[in-house]
């Protein structure tokens, strides 16, 4: 325990609160290591008075052996030597031993504490199981503890704690140890808070007595620093810094009051002459030498300030705020100079300069020691002030010691240098091992002229060596420009201009003069002087070997804005394109520029200028760089990014997109070879630009640039198609050229040569679909002439078609958009061609005219393109024949046009929409039959309909159609329907098939004034018949009995050309056939289809070809039952599928069709058929596996409305109940 008996070390960074230990020292020694490690692990909340925010702190303690001399005496207010807690340790478990010795020792310990008014104590009883086993007459543990509490802790029972086997790792021991540590932290924090509060009150009282005679700042300084030490001991560095800041502010206020005539007596000790000027010492946490001087009241002003700042610097570095140190240091150095003057302190000439120089370097070295290089470079703006101040003081010392005189230092200068070096004293041990310490640098700089020139480069210029001075100045200029010091940049450039003029470096001198002429930090007279230097050289006649001098444009003028007219910066060959360039002249006087030219880079690639040259309004703004470099752009070149797109050559679809940098060679080159034209220190000036009259250039001659903003107008060359990029800008002033070698952002304009284009589009008319079939429609022709000039006699040749004739109209005229008025068109038609004579039109103009066309509605019914594959998948075609919203049927009309500017014909497609859609229905009332036709207006126009007629399209009339329509003419508005009804009357049996044609006349309402001719709309359909026959021998069908069903399918007409292309036909033995699929289903569950219910038949491609299918059905209910539903589809096999060869009969069927080959909409019907006991096979497992593997499958295409008519739709057949032959037995009892 000797190590713990020593007096704790005072005023070090390792200070901890003192805790004394009395009693069994060997017991405490065994627990010391664990106690010292475990105590600071858990944080405690420290609540302070006066509403200050609570903080979490980790408590540590310096455990020492209890001695009476450690207790504070009266008047001693030091906190660092104050014991905050006293602990008595014992492991006594024997009552006799306790009464004989332990109690007496505790009593003596308690008396000493009461004598010194120490009330913060704790008794720890350590319990050990090993000791209990060695004692036979041991009382229970509570007996010893109770005795101690009764004897010493009557009113404070918590001051006695029990620690059970602390060295064991049992749960009981851990719990006891944790409870003890919590108690110890709580008592220590309570004592610390109480005594710290009492100390702060005493310090506050002492501060309030500062106006009384005899008050000493040094005594108060030591008291408040004691508080700062305590906060630092608790690692509360911010609170510790506040204490030193308060001392700093208090001392500064007293010095200012002294300067105002209200001085304190204690300031006299700080007015002593300065005997030492060895600068700041920041490499020690606490400078004990200067602290002792302050404690004895012998410190000078520089000693107090040095010590106070060293403590602030240490705490700021602990707080990780090193850059605040540099700001405070610069403020301290300036304040100390002023305070020495206010206090009228006697200082040896040059001593204060030495102290400032050493202090600046000491602060800079201290910051460099705690920061890495990247942090130093990023925060160089915080240190440049110290470097500048140190340079000024070194310069002052050079003049004082004669180190910059042309003849060197005199003997008096040498004596003064010796006195200054003597005041530095011996070098401190902390800096003795450093090769470049501030002490060594200052001593070396004052030792000789050569050493001083090394440390201060300006002396070379004063000594008449401009070549060496220029190198030093160039390095300084780079540093000043990088860190943004504008005044230093201007001053250094003036010195460089003087050196360059002495060295006859004409080009560099002119470049520096140009930068200085545009420098706003100089007055008007100086700027004009440097500008006249350039103009005088430019006006001199060149000699035979003299060359043009090229200078940077950035020092002469700044590009501000460029505006295109027209704004899009995209014009055709031969058009007018002007560029207005706005520049800001930096010269102080007007300068006459003989020629201002911009070089152009021509590229055959087009399409890149859009969006880069003209941003909507055609204005390009140039970024403005830092004024320090005298440049219009920054030292680092800006990125030139271009969009890159990779498109497919077949359909121009976008494959990939990216961004490419075109000036990567400027961005990635080495920095030491990055010779910028914006600074004359790079050593490389721009090359002169050769201006050739035949080159692609923008030129403006005899331009006078006034100081400030100027506007220059250029006319761009547009002779050849391609992209033009502005690369360089050159202004010629006599023998001098000002060159802008790189223009950013990229400025481009595009000249294009366009091929003639013809477009045809419908005019907005009666319908949102624009063109309606069956009525005259207006179509607009637009011709963009491009580079072609339409001459007199040029005409468009349009091919005539019977389905879409071109109507002649006297109102048709052609209009050239750039001219006024219209010119009449000459239209001539022949049997095959319609010729339209065009008026003469110059290139790059637009010609428009209108024509009327009429698309006839075909008499055959048109179908909608809604196909469905046999596996349920919808088939999508490239051309749709119906509108997506209202299912309007459309007709595509193709027109071939021969243009005078091309040897090839142009094929134009016009789409016409049929305004009507018709459907028919067969109605029955008993034995009477009715045909109802619904005509729906699916367009957005309103029509008048007249004379609805229904006739039979057969050679011989078999039925009579009696019209039941009352009105001859009716109005049908948009999206409305008109229903017409006819009754069928027949004398003999109904034919198996009935072909009908519905027709009606229509005219738009808008065409009634003036009157227009009615057009005819036709709709064709046919009615088929199916018969159900009872079983042989029966007159009527009966439930549960098989009946024969005969299905008759008849082709009424040959397929059209379009249908013939879509349907696959097969020729067998000279007979051309197509495949149809039929299917018999019963959705109402009245019939059960027995045997096959569907199949594929081969229908001959001939009118009136009939195919009959025999099958068996079974009625399930009695009564008048409707016929089963019969569906017919086009069967279109896949091209890769195996063709099923039919038999030699002309009309045969294939019964091996799987029901899985139907659409998804019909699968429910198939399931219902199978559920009723159909014996038809759904398909083999092999077929299903092929379908699941995604093999090519045939598809089914339904017929369009009106193409197939079911004659038996609405018919019924009488079904009688089955004969009941069952016998019912009835037993009566």
UniProtKB/TrEMBL annotation:
Annotated InterPro entries: Ig_TRAPPC10, TRAPPC10/Trs130, TRAPPC10/Trs130_C, TRAPPC10/Trs130_N
Residue span of region Disordered: 1163-1198
Residue ranges of domain TRAPPC10/Trs130 N-terminal in the record: 14-325
GO cellular component: cytosol; TRAPPII protein complex
Subcellular location: Golgi apparatus
Domain TRAPPC10/Trs130 C-terminal: 992-1216
Transport is among the record's keywords: yes
One Pfam short name: TRAPPC10
Single Gene Ontology BP annotation: early endosome to Golgi transport
Ranges for domain TRAPPC10 Ig-like: 770-912
Record key words, sorted: Golgi apparatus, Transport
Composition bias type Low complexity, residue spans: 1168-1182
Primary subcellular site in the record, as a coarse category: Golgi
Classification via PANTHER family: EPILEPSY HOLOPROSENCEPHALY CANDIDATE 1/TMEM1 (PTHR13251), TRAFFICKING PROTEIN PARTICLE COMPLEX SUBUNIT 10 (PTHR13251:SF3)
Annotated protein name in UniProt: Trafficking protein particle complex 10
Organism: Esox lucius
């Amino acid at each position: 325990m000797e190590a713990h008996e020593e007096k704790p070390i005072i005023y070090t960074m390792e200070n901890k609160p003192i805790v004394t230990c009395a009693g069994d020292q060997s017991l405490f020694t065994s627990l010391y290591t664990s106690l010292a490690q475990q105590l600071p692990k858990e944080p405690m909340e420290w609540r302070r008075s006066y509403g200050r925010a609570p903080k979490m702190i980790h408590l540590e303690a310096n455990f020492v052996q209890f001695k009476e001399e450690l207790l504070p005496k009266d008047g001693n207010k030091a906190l660092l030597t104050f014991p905050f807690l006293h602990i008595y340790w014992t492991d006594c478990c024997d009552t006799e031993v306790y009464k004989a010795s332990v109690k007496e020792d505790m009593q003596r310990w308690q008396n000493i504490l009461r004598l010194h008014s120490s009330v913060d104590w704790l008794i720890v009883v350590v319990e050990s199981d090993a000791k209990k086993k060695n004692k036979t007459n041991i009382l229970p543990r509570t007996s010893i503890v109770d005795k101690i509490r009764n004897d010493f802790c009557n009113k404070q029972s918590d001051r006695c704690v029990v620690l059970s086997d602390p060295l064991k790792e049992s749960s009981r021991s851990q719990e006891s140890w944790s409870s003890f540590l919590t108690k110890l932290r709580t008592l220590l924090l309570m004592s610390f808070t109480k005594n710290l509060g009492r100390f702060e009150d005493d310090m506050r009282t002492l501060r309030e007595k500062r106006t009384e005679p005899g008050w000493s700042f040094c005594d108060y300084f030591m008291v408040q620093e004691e508080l700062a030490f305590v906060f630092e001991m608790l690692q509360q560095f911010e609170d510790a810094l506040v204490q030193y800041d308060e001392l700093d502010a208090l001392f500064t206020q007293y010095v200012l009051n002294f300067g105002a005539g209200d001085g304190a007596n204690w300031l006299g000790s700080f007015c002593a002459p300065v005997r030492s000027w060895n600068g700041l010492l920041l490499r020690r946490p606490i400078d004990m030498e200067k602290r002792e001087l302050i404690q004895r009241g012998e410190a000078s002003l520089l000693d107090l300030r040095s010590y106070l700042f060293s403590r602030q610097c240490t705490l700021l570095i602990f707080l990780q705020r090193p850059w605040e140190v540099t700001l405070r240091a610069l403020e301290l150095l300036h304040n100390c100079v002023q305070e020495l003057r206010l206090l009228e302190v006697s200082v040896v000439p040059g001593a204060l300069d030495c102290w400032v120089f050493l202090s600046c370097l000491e602060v800079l070295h201290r910051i460099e020691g705690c920061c890495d290089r990247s942090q130093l470079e990023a925060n160089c703006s915080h240190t440049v002030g110290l470097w500048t101040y140190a340079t000024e003081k070194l310069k002052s010392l050079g003049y004082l010691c004669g180190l910059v005189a042309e003849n060197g230092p005199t003997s008096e200068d040498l004596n003064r240098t010796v006195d200054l070096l003597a005041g530095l004293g011996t070098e401190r041990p902390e800096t003795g091992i450093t090769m470049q310490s501030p002490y060594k640098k200052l001593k070396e700089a004052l030792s000789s002229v050569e050493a001083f020139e090394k440390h201060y480069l300006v002396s070379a210029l004063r000594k008449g060596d401009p070549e060496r001075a220029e190198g030093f100045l160039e390095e300084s200029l780079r540093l000043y420009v990088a860190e943004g010091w504008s005044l230093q940049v201007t001053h250094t450039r003036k010195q460089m201009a003087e050196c360059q003029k002495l060295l006859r470096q004409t080009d560099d001198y002119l470049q520096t003069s140009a930068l200085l002429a545009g420098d706003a930090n100089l007055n008007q007279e100086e700027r004009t002087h440097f500008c006249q230097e350039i103009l005088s050289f430019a006006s001199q006649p060149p000699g035979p070997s003299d060359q043009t001098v090229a200078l940077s444009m950035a020092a002469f003028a700044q590009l501000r804005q460029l505006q295109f007219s027209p704004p899009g910066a995209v014009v055709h060959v031969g058009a007018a394109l002007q560029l207005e360039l706005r520049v800001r002249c930096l010269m102080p006087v007007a300068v006459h520029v003989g020629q201002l030219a911009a070089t152009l880079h021509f590229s055959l690639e087009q399409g890149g200028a859009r969006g880069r040259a003209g941003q909507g309004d055609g204005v390009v703004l140039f970024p403005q760089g830092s004024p320090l470099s005298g440049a219009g752009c920054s030292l680092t070149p800006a990125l030139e990014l271009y969009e890159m797109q990779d498109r497919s050559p077949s359909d121009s679809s976008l494959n990939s997109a990216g961004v490419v940098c075109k000036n990567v060679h400027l961005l990635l080159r080495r920095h030491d070879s990055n010779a910028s034209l914006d600074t004359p220190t790079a050593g490389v000036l721009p090359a002169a630009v050769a201006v050739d009259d035949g080159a692609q250039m923008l030129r403006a001659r005899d331009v006078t640039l006034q100081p400030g903003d100027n506007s220059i107008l250029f006319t761009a060359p547009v002779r050849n198609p391609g992209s033009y990029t502005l690369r360089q800008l050159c202004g010629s002033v006599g023998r001098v050229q000002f060159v802008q070698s790189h223009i950013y952002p990229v400025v481009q304009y595009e000249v294009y040569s366009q091929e003639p284009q013809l477009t045809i589009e419908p005019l907005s008319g009666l319908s949102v679909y624009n063109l309606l079939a069956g009525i005259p429609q207006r179509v607009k022709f637009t011709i963009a002439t491009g580079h072609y000039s339409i001459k007199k006699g040029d005409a468009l040749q349009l091919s005539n078609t019977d389905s879409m004739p071109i109507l002649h109209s006297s109102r048709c005229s052609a209009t050239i958009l750039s001219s006024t008025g219209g010119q009449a068109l000459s239209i001539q038609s022949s049997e095959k061609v319609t010729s339209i004579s065009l008026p003469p039109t110059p290139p790059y103009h637009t010609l428009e005219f209108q024509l009327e066309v009429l698309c006839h509605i075909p008499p055959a019914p048109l179908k909608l393109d809604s196909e469905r594959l046999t596996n349920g998948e919808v088939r999508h075609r490239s051309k749709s024949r119906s509108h997506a919203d209202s299912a309007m049927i459309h007709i595509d009309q193709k027109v071939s046009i021969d243009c005078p500017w091309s040897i090839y014909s142009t094929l134009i497609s016009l789409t016409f929409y049929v305004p009507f859609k018709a459907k028919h229905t067969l109605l029955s009332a008993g034995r009477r039959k009715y045909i109802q036709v619904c005509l729906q207006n699916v367009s957005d126009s309103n029509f008048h309909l007249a004379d609805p007629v229904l006739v039979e399209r057969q050679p011989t009339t078999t039925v009579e159609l009696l019209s039941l329509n009352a009105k001859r003419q009716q109005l049908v508005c948009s999206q409305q329907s008109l229903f017409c009804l006819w009754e069928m009357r027949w004398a003999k049996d109904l034919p198996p098939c009935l072909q009908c044609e519905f027709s009606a006349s229509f005219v738009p309402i808008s065409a009634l004034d003036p009157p227009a001719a009615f057009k005819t709309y036709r709709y064709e359909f046919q009615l088929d018949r199916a018969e159900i026959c009872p079983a042989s021998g029966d007159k009527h069908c009966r439930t549960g009995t098989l009946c024969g069903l005969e299905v008759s399918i008849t082709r009424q007409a040959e397929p059209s050309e379009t249908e013939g292309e879509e349907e696959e036909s097969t020729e067998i033995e000279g007979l051309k056939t197509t495949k149809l699929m039929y299917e018999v289903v019963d959705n109402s569950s009245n019939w059960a289809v027995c045997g096959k219910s569907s199949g594929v038949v081969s229908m001959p491609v001939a009118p009136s070809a009939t195919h009959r299918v025999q099958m068996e059905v079974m009625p399930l209910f009695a009564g008048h039952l409707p016929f089963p539903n019969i569906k017919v589809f086009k069967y279109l096999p896949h091209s890769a599928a195996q063709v099923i060869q039919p038999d030699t009969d002309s009309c045969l069927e294939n019964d091996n069709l799987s029901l899985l080959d139907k659409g998804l909409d019909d699968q429910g019907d198939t399931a219902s058929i199978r559920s009723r006991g159909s014996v038809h096979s759904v398909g083999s497992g092999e077929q299903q596996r092929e379908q699941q593997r995604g093999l090519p499958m045939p598809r089914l295409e339904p017929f369009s409305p009106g193409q197939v008519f079911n004659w038996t739709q609405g018919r019924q057949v009488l079904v009688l109940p089955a004969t009941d032959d069952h016998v019912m037995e009835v037993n009566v009892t």
